[in-house]
Design brief:
The complex is a heterotrimer of chains A (237), B (418) and C (255). With 237 residues, chain A is α/β, with parallel strands linked by helices. Chain A contains seven helices and ten strands. Chain A has a single domain, classed as Rossmann fold (3-Layer(aba) Sandwich), CATH 3.40.50. The two termini of chain A are 33 Å apart. Chain B is mostly beta strands and 418 residues long. Chain B has a single domain (49-397), classed as Pectate Lyase C-like, CATH 2.160.20.10. Chain B is built from four helices and 39 strands. In chain B, helix 2 links the parallel strand 1 and strand 2 (52-56). By secondary structure, chain C is mainly α. Chain C has one domain. Helices cover 85% and strands 0% of the residues of chain C. Chain C has eleven helices and no strands. Chain C has helices at 2-15, 17-35, 39-68, 70-77, 83-113, 117-143, 147-175, 182-189, 193-204, 212-222, 225-251. The chains are: A alpha/beta (237), B mainly beta (418), C mainly alpha (255). The interface between B and C is medium-sized, with 26 and 36 residues.
Chain lengths: 237, 418, 255
C-alpha cells in the first residue's frame, strides 16, 4: 500500500534516512522502533509529505506522493507532540479540520466519546495538558476513518486508562483491515498489537521482520526480550 | 460695466480737454468712411502743430504711419490700424503727442530694426493711453524719451519663442517715464527697461510672457508699486541696477527650471517692501546684491523662499513671513554677510516662555537638505524621505554642516498680518 | 482554500493587533488633517507617517504572525491540502486584514479631506506598500526557523527600505555629482518601493515644479502614461517576487 524506495535525507551533516526501502501492506500493524534520532519520525514525516527526501521515491497505492496531496485523505496522523493553534478551542480545531477535509462518510467519533472530549470543547489549546493534547491528536487521527493510521508515540503522556482506550481502538482498527504504523519506546505495550517490526539505526533499517519470524527465531514471546536477543546476535555477527 | 463707465468718463474728460484746446488753438480733423478724409495719412499731412485728429471706427491699412508733429491723435470706437505683418504700425517722432483709443495690430516682424505697434523716437511728453495692441512684434517701444505716460493699454501678443517676439513695453535710454495700469501678456518681456532712470511702474498686470514679466537692466532710481506678475517664463529680473524701490507687488506662479519670483543680480541699495511671493520655483533669487532691505514681504508656497548666493553682502531681511515653502532659504556658500531678524518662519519649532512674541531660541532657516540640494540637485529624489527629515532634525539640534551664523536670533512666534 | 482563509482571518481579527493598527492609522490621519490648515499639507504630513508605519507594521505583524502560525501550518500539513494553498491562504488573509485596516484607518480621512487624485494615489500606493511588505515578510520568515532571527531580518529590511536605502542614494548622488545622473536616479528609485511611492505622490502634489531640473526629469518619466504603467508594473513585481520566492522555498521546506 505504501512503498518507500531508496529514500535518502540529510539534515546538514546528519544522514537521517540512508537508502531506506520499505513496503507496507494493508492489514499490517507495523512497529517502527529504534534509538532516539534514528530517523523514525523523519520516515513518518516523509510518508506524510512533511519532509521531502533528497532522493528516492515514496508511493502510496502505486502513485508518487510528491506534488499530490489527495492521498493524505486516507491517512490519519497522530504526531508525537501535537502542536495546535494556541488560541483555538478543542471544538474549533476539530470543527476546522472537519471543515477542511469535508468527509463524505460518517465520522468515527468513538474516541471523542471514550475520551469524553466534548466536555472540554470550549477549552483553549494553550490551557490543555500534554495528555489532553494527545487525546485530541488521537481523536483527530481516527476521526475520518482513514485506511492508514500513522501514530507517533501514541501513548506517551497518556494516563493508563486512556492508553488502554487507545490501544483497544488500535486493535479494533487493525481488525478492520487497516494499515497501522506505530513508533514507540514502550515495547511492552506493542506486544498484542503488532504484526511486524522494523528496527532502525542511524538512518538505516537494521531489520524488518514479521512477529512470527521474530518469535520463531528468538523463541521469545515478548517483544522486548526477542529484540534484545536479535540485537545481541547481530552484534556478535 | 464699471470699466466701461470709467472708460467713457475718461474719454469724456479727454474730449473736454480737447474741446478746450480746440477753443484755444488748433483744428479738429475727422477721419472715417463717412468723411471726406477716409484715411489717416492724408489727415496727418493736412494737420499742423496742435491739431486734433479723430479717427472713427474702421480698418486702416496704410503701411507705416508717422506722426511728426505735436498733435492729439484719437480713436473713436477703437478704429483698427493694421500693419499687415509688414510695417511698423505707428511711429511717433514729435514731442507732446497724445495717442488714444486705437486698436493697433499685426506689426511687422524683424529682429534688425525692432518694429513696434507704437514706437516713439527721441520725444518728450508723449502720452499713450487706452489703446489695444494686438499681435505686434514690440508693443510700445520708447527710444530715448523723457516724461512720457503709458497708461491703460492692453498689450497682447501670441509669442511662442523668445527670439520671435519683442517686449510689451520696451523703454531704452529714457527718463522719467510713467507706466501705469497696463495689461501685458504673450510678449518676450512684459515691461523692459534698459538705461531708464527716475521712472515709475504702477498697477500693471504682466502675465504669461515668455521670459520676464518685468526686466530691468542698468536702470537706476526707478520704482515699481502694486504690480502683478504672474506665470511669466522666468518671473521678474532686476539686474545691474542701483536704487530700485519695489513695493506691494505680487509675484506668483512662476514655475520652471530657471524661474524666479524676483531675480536680483548685481543690484544695490534697493528696497523690497510689502510684496507677495507666492508659488514660485524661487521666491527671491539674489546674486551679487548689496545693501538691500527686504521687509514686510510674504514668501509663501515657493520651492525656495530665498536663494541667497554667497556673493551677496550686507542685505537685511527682517519682518517677513516665510510660510509653507519647500525650503525657506538656500545658499551656495558658507560665508554669511547678511542679517536676518524678526521674521516669521512657519517651520520654527521653538518656544516663547517670556511671552514677548519672539522665540527664545534662535532659528536656523537653512536646512541641511537645502545645502545638499544646492551642491547636488539630483538628491532632490530624496525630498521628504524619512532619512532626510531625520538629517534635518538632527542638524537643527546640532548644527554642524550648515553655516552657524545663518541665523535669525529673534524669530517671530506668529505671522505678521500682511 | 476559502475555508482556510476564513479561519486565518477570524484568528487575525481575534488578535486585536490589526484593530490597534487601524485605530493608530486613523488617529494619525485625522490629526494630520486636523492640525494642518490645508489638505495638501495634511497629505504631506500623512505621507511620511504612511511611508514609515505602513511598511513597519506590515512587515513586523506578518513576520510574527507567520512564526506564530507554525503549529497551524503543521496541523494543516497532515491534512489533504496542497502546501501552496496553505501559504497562499496565509498571504491572502494577512494582506486582506492589513489592507482593510489601512483603508479604514487612513482611507476614510483621506477620502473626506483629500477626495482628489492625490488622495486616491495615496490609497493605491499605500495598499501596494502594504502588500509588498507582507510579501517581503514571507520571504524573511521562510529564510530562517528562528523566530527572533526572522523578526530581526524583517526589522533590518524595513530599516533598509525606510532609511538606509535613501542614505545609499545620497551617497551615490554625491559620488556621481559630476555626471548627469537624473535619469539613472529614476532607475535607482525603483529599487525601493517606498521611494517610488513617495516620488509618485510628490509629483501628483505638483511640488515637482519646485524641484527644478531634477523634478522636471522625474515628471517627464513618472508623469507620462508609459511611466505610470512601468512604475505600476514594478510595484507588482515587488509584490510578487518576494512572495513567489518564499512560496517556492515553502514548497520544499521540511517541517
Amino acid at each position: 500500500m505504501i512503498s518507500i524506495i531508496n529514500a535518502r535525507k540529510q539534515f546538514s551533516k546528519l544522514q537521517v534516512l540512508d537508502d531506506v526501502s520499505i513496503e507496507f501492506q494493508r492489514g499490517e500493524c507495523v512497529a517502527l522502533i529504534g534509538p532516539n534520532g534514528c530517523g523514525k519520525t523523519t520516515l513518518i514525516k516523509s510518508i506524510l509529505g512533511m519532509v521531502i527526501p533528497d532522493s528516492g521515491e515514496i508511493h502510496f497505492q502505486g502513485k508518487a506522493v510528491l506534488n499530490d496531496e489527495t492521498y493524505r485523505k486516507q491517512i490519519g496522523y497522530m504526531p508525537q507532540i501535537g502542536r495546535y493553534p494556541q488560541n483555538m478551542t478543542i471544538g474549533q480545531v476539530i470543527e476546522m479540520i472537519c471543515d477542511i477535509r469535508k468527509p463524505n462518510q460518517p465520522l468515527d467519533e468513538e474516541l471523542l466519546f471514550e475520551f469524553d472530549l466534548r466536555k472540554l470543547y470550549h477549552k483553549k489549546m494553550s490551557t490543555l495538558s500534554g495528555g489532553t493534547t494527545q487525546k485530541v491528536s488521537a481523536t483527530l487521527a481516527f476521526l475520518f476513518n482513514p485506511d492508514v493510521l500513522i501514530l507517533d508515540e501514541p501513548t506517551a503522556g497518556l494516563d493508563p486508562i486512556s492508553a488502554e482506550i487507545l490501544k483497544a481502538k488500535i486493535i479494533r482498527e487493525k481488525s478492520n483491515g487497516k494499515l497501522i504504523i506505530i513508533t514507540s519506546h514502550i515495547l511492552s505495550e506493542l506486544d498484542d498489537l503488532i504484526t511486524a517490526l522494523i528496527y532502525m539505526q542511524d538512518g538505516k533499517i537494521l531489520f524488518h521482520k514479521t512477529m512470527e519470524t521474530i518469535r520463531q527465531e528468538s523463541g521469545e514471546q515478548r517483544i522486548s526480550k526477542a529484540l534484545a536477543q536479535i540485537l545481541q546476535k547481530q552484534a556478535l555477527r | 460695466m464699471t470699466s466701461l463707465n470709467e472708460q467713457t468718463m475718461k474719454q469724456s474728460i479727454l474730449f473736454l480737454l480737447i474741446f478746450i484746446s480746440i477753443l484755444s488753438e488748433g483744428r479738429t480733423i475727422r477721419v472715417g468712411p463717412t468723411h471726406e478724409i477716409k484715411q489717416i495719412k492724408p489727415a496727418l499731412s493736412l494737420s499742423s502743430q496742435g491739431d486734433t485728429i479723430i479717427v472713427e471706427a474702421g480698418l486702416y491699412q496704410e503701411g507705416n504711419i508717422v506722426i511728426s508733429q505735436s498733435i492729439v491723435f484719437l480713436g473713436e470706437g477703437m478704429p483698427i490700424i493694421d500693419g499687415e505683418k509688414k510695417y511698423e504700425v505707428l511711429s511717433i517722432k514729435a514731442n507732446d503727442v497724445v495717442v488714444s483709443g486705437f486698436t493697433i495690430q499685426h506689426s511687422g516682424v524683424a529682429t534688425m530694426d525692432d518694429p513696434g505697434g507704437i514706437k516713439v523716437y527721441y520725444s518728450n511728453h508723449v502720452t499713450i493711453i487706452d489703446n489695444y495692441l494686438y499681435d505686434n512684434f514690440f508693443g510700445i517701444y520708447m527710444q530715448c524719451c523723457k516724461n512720457c505716460l503709458i497708461k491703460n493699454n492692453k498689450i497682447v501678443s501670441l509669442g511662442k519663442e523668445e527670439q520671435m517676439i519683442g517686449n510689451g513695453i520696451h523703454c531704452w535710454k529714457s527718463d522719467s517715464m510713467l507706466i501705469i495700469a497696463n495689461n501685458i501678456s504673450g510678449h518676450r518681456d512684459g515691461i523692459y527697461f534698459e538705461f531708464v532712470t527716475h521712472s515709475v511702474i504702477w498697477r500693471n498686470i504682466s502675465t504669461y510672457n515668455i521670459r520676464y514679466g518685468l526686466h530691468f537692466m542698468f536702470s537706476n532710481d526707478d520704482s515699481y508699486f502694486t504690480n502683478l506678475f504672474r506665470g511669466n517664463g522666468a518671473g521678474v529680473a532686476v539686474m545691474f541696477t542701483s536704487r530700485v524701490i519695489m513695493i506691494n507687488n505680487t509675484f506668483e506662479e512662476n514655475w520652471g527650471d530657471a524661474a524666479y519670483g524676483l531675480l536680483l543680480k548685481e543690484i544695490s541699495d534697493s528696497y523690497i517692501y510689502g510684496n507677495h511671493f507666492v508659488k514660485n520655483t524661487s521666491g527671491i533669487y539674489m546674486e551679487g546684491t548689496n545693501r538691500i532691505y527686504i521687509s514686510m514681504n510674504v514668501l509663501q508656497s515657493n520651492g525656495w523662499g530665498m536663494k541667497i548666493q554667497a556673493s551677496c553682502m550686507d542685505n537685511t531681511i527682517t519682518n517677513n513671513n516665510f510660510v509653507s515653502n519647500t525650503f525657506d532659504i538656500s545658499t551656495n556658500g558658507s560665508l554669511v554677510l547678511n542679517t536676518f531678524n524678526e521674521n516669521y518662519w512657519d517651520k520654527y519649532e521653538g518656544y516663547d516662555l517670556n511671552r514677548d512674541q519672539t522665540g527664545d531660541i534662535p532659528y536656523h532657516p537653512l536646512s541641511l537638505f537645502s545645502v545638499i540640494i544646492e551642491k547636488n540637485p539630483p538628491a532632490m529624489l530624496l525630498y521628504r524621505s524619512s532619512m532626510v527629515m531625520l538629517l534635518d532634525k538632527s542638524e537643527k539640534v546640532l548644527p554642524s554642516l550648515t553655516p552657524d551664523n545663518f541665523i535669525d536670533h529673534k524669530p517671530r512666534m506668529h505671522a505678521l498680518p500682511l | 482554500m476559502n475555508r482556510i482563509i476564513k479561519f486565518i482571518l477570524l484568528d487575525i481579527v481575534k488578535n486585536k493587533v490589526v484593530l490597534l493598527y487601524t485605530i493608530l492609522l486613523a488617529a494619525f490621519s485625522w490629526s494630520a488633517f486636523g492640525l494642518e490648515d490645508n489638505s495638501t499639507k495634511g497629505v504631506l504630513t500623512l505621507l511620511n507617517i504612511i511611508l514609515l508605519t505602513v511598511p513597519l507594521v506590515a512587515i513586523l505583524f506578518a513576520t510574527i504572525y507567520i512564526y506564530n502560525s507554525a503549529e497551524f501550518i503543521e496541523l494543516l500539513l497532515g491534512q489533504p491540502i496542497k502546501r501552496s494553498k496553505i501559504w497562499c491562504a496565509l498571504f491572502l488573509s494577512l494582506c486582506f486584514s492589513l489592507l482593510f485596516a489601512f483603508l479604514i484607518g487612513a482611507g476614510i480621512p483621506i477620502l473626506i479631506y483629500a477626495p482628489n487624485d492625490v488622495g486616491l494615489m495615496m490609497l493605491i500606493l499605500g495598499s501596494f506598500i502594504t502588500v509588498i511588505f507582507v510579501s517581503i515578510a514571507f520571504l524573511s520568515a521562510i529564510a530562517t526557523r528562528d523566530k527572533a532571527k526572522g523578526i530581526g531580518i524583517s526589522m533590518m529590511l524595513w530599516l533598509y527600505f525606510a532609511l538606509l536605502f535613501d542614505g545609499l542614494i545620497l551617497f551615490l548622488t554625491f559620488q556621481f555629482s559630476e555626471y548627469p545622473i537624473e535619469k539613472m536616479m529614476i532607475g535607482v528609485s525603483m529599487l525601493s518601493p517606498i521611494d517610488m511611492a513617495r516620488i509618485m505622490i510628490l509629483l501628483k502634489l505638483d511640488v515637482s515644479a519646485m524641484m527644478g531640473y531634477t523634478g522636471a526629469v522625474f515628471k517627464e518619466f513618472f508623469g507620462t502614461v508609459l511611466g505610470t504603467i512601468v512604475s505600476i508594473a514594478i510595484l507588482f513585481l515587488w509584490m510578487w517576487i518576494p512572495f513567489f520566492w518564499s512560496l517556492f522555498k515553502f514548497k520544499h521546506k521540511d517541517l
